[in-house]
Amino acid sequence: MNFILPGAPWLIAHRSMLGVNKPYKITLNNCDYVLWQNKMGEIFALENVCPHMQAPLDNGWVCKENNSITCPFHALEFDGKGRLIKDGEAKGEAITKSLDLIIKDDLIWTYGNFEPRLSVPSFIREKSKGLNFFGVAGNKAIQAEFLKCIKINYDFNHQNGVHSDTFRIKENPLESFEKDGYYAKVVQTFIREDNTIQELFQNPSLISFPKKIKNQLEYTFPSTTLFKAEVPLGEILQFFILYPETENRTRTFVLLYANWGNPVINVPGLGNLIKRSLLKSTAKIVEQDSKALESLYPSQKPKIRLPKEEIMFYVEGLYHEW
Q1: Which domains does the chain have, with CATH numbers?
Q2: 47-92 residue pLDDT tens
Q3: Is residue 194 scored above 90 in pLDDT?
Q4: How far apart are CA 322 and CA 317, in angstroms?
Q5: Above 70 in pLDDT, residue 264?
């Protein structure tokens, strides 16, 4: 079994994705886990297989009284440490493996029980300070290996093709590219064509995007890409998250934050309309990237070079040197 970047910190969920007393399944590096959160906000995680007859625990339910996960086959209960519960109490040693979690600012991180090689970044908390959390968008599995998925986030040429139908980008000049170890930053400008009335009607958030958008992307390898844009209504932050489910499947989701400085957003109903539209358009971006990645043929040596590809070589180097 090949583990992808063992010892890297992976952001596997935002607290809002779990709900309360509901099993939530994730897959990380070829292993399935079940997470659950009680009404006090405590979060637990175990390997998703019952040690009795290997039933998937996420098909079971949460016992609120014992803060335990219940197997769907025989109603066996396990606490957050993997111990069997009998008569309302945990008995003996753990018989199913727990997943170590690190929870910071509603963000749920894990090293997948590997020895840490990098610290859990405070990047999202620092960058989103003072902004409103709008929600999670584009939570899906991409049928593509992790390296291909991470490279598309560092590819500044793909917006003109993959996202042309949405944003009508005709140019995206790169102003600067800085790198410092596992951190990188890019400043660029999107120069857009006009959207049609029909496109604006279908996606009202496009109203907030001018024809020229100065934006920046910041990266913390290997999981997080921040897209930050200044628009007339205020500031938008999108954190694109990736982690490897298997060797050929990658999970992604986007955390959306915003700060509206323009008073027009206070018009009754307009704020919620823009918020819903932003979440919808963010999900569409993820869907477009996913389709592009899943349609690729096996990798070959490129016979064409495009401008601004050096940052892709940078992240590819970090991956192979891990």
Answers
A1: 10-110 (2.102.10.10), 123-321 (3.90.380.10)
A2: 999 999 999 999 999 999 999 999 999 999 999 999 999 988 998 9
A3: no
A4: 9
A5: no
